[in-house]
């Protein structure tokens, strides 16, 4: 089961966990990307995420398919939020279930890194006195 | 041929629009497209460093030839994040 979405709606981790749960799997790992209140010494007020939604969903789908091929896992959720996000809101959720924990940990980490590197999603950081689109250096 | 190129994030903001239309010769490659955009759009001059081109919603290599019917987009560096 691969479930992907790019959405303006709040991401609810429990819903992702519910989707990946299955009787043959004994390990569930999830990653939540959360908006931090600081970056490069600046006090961040909020973030704005923008995506190329159709392409981003295709990229997430491909990352999910590769994860199912490369690791002993069968269920993976890859979600990314867009729009205005306040501090401590969840910007992305990756959740994986597998028969055993090693594959779940590895597949989850690998998928997170690939989403960060490949998904056409951008964030604009808004801090006191300015704002800026943030590239890969952050 | 006439093409339309979608812009996002920093490029959209710099250009002040989410789509640019331009005329390019048949047989134009991705690499040539980026130079044409730079020279024809003052706002985007110097802004395409690290920018990738997506053709029909997939990343394209610099020598890929673009077609009139392609959905084209400029993809500035994505949001990334420290590990």
Task: Please characterize this protein's 3D structure.
The complex is a heterodimer of chains A (138) and B (83). Chain A is built from 3 helices and 9 strands. Chain A has helices at 13-20, 53-70, 101-118; strands at 2-7, 27-34, 38-39, 42-51, 75-81, 83-86, 90-98, 121-127, 130-134. In chain A, the strands form 2 sheets. In chain A, strands 3, 4, 6, 8 and 9 form a 5-stranded antiparallel beta sheet that branches. The N and C termini of chain A lie far apart (32 Å). Chain B is of the alpha+beta class. Chain B has one domain (2-75): Beta-grasp domain (Ubiquitin-like (UB roll)), CATH 3.10.20. Chain B has helices at 9-15, 30-40, and strands at 2-6, 19-23, 52-55, 58-59, 72-75. Chain B is globular, with a radius of gyration of 12 Å. The mean pLDDT of chain B is 91. At the A-B interface, strand 4, helix 2, helix 3 and strand 8 of A face helix 1 and strand 4 of B.
